[in-house]
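#struct-queue
[09:14] JT: dropping the first one here, sequence first, then the structure tokens:
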Amino acid sequence: MNDDDPEPTPPLELMKRLLDSQRLKLGVHIRKMNSPGSPVYRYGENVWPVAVILTSSFAATVLTHYYVGGVILAIGCWWWLARVQPKVKDGVFDRSCAWALQSDTHFDALWAKGLLTLFAELPDGRKFAATRRDDWRSFVRMVTAEAGSAPAPTKEAA
């Protein structure tokens, strides 16, 4: 190798550039990442809203009437499903992506457990996906090669 030759771009950096240019999409297994023991799990956003709904419903049932408790429980379930759960899913996705893209070690750990997937649609319309049984580094290199050229460097790399 010649001293003038630039070093090859690490696969994780290539993947970040592909993600930024939207040539590649990262998928996250939300249910598994939003479980205790996950590096991105937050008890507060999962336990406290449900505890407040159930406590309010039980208190209303005991203090007033069964129907009042049922109405509070129904409204609380609607609030959880319509308002809270989408925010939790978005938060888990964002935190998972950020954690996975911090280092090769983090990405490899999540990839080996099957918690991440990669998807690419090439300009000619062909679609490719990679799951844990595939090598993500080879997939990123293949997408880069198939797309015709390496993605433009980002501001940080320039």
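[09:21] JT: and here's the second one, same format:
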Amino acid sequence: MADIAATALRLGNPPTVHAATGHLAVTTGTAVVADVWISGDLGFVLLLHRRDDGLIAEELYYSVRRLNGAWERPDHLSGGIVGTELGAPAAVEDALAGASMSVVTKSESLVHTGRDSNGDDGELVHIWELLVSGDADLIEIERFSQASPGTSAPFRREVTGPLILLVLLPGERMRVSAMRRETSSLTRLGDALDLHNPEL
């Protein structure tokens, strides 16, 4: 799976776009890339695979980009069972219960970010996985940081499947909104989510 994660990091996004079908086809014996998050020289990849008992499991990988631009071999951070059948769009919408997106999991991991003045002690990053409705075409992210007060310009990410991966460094906060394309404009779907990592 580390090789699949490495390929996804080189591409900078999931190798296959799943939004056209509104679901992720997760079959036994193969792993698929649910989402990729890259922030500077840090990269995270969320993989899904179907276990022998039929349940979908997730695996989170992490890597650091070298000075020459190449990624280190990804390390496994965590894993677990996904509680929603991501291969069925109706199951995703049922789990959302009318919301445009919801938090599936939130976790913390101590990783070497390269920003830590103490060397290799690492920093505690907060990791969110969001379940997103098939009605959403993209998510808009407003990013805030205690290190640089004020808001940065919002940026948008295409929705490539029902799971979105977001990673916040210590002192960062995000406001995340699901959006749908309407001819030449965008429509915001539901309420925004406010996520933050208060660790310093």
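[09:30] RK: nice, looked through the second one.
[09:31] RK: The first helix runs from residue 2 to 11.
[09:31] JT: good to know. The mean pLDDT is 84.
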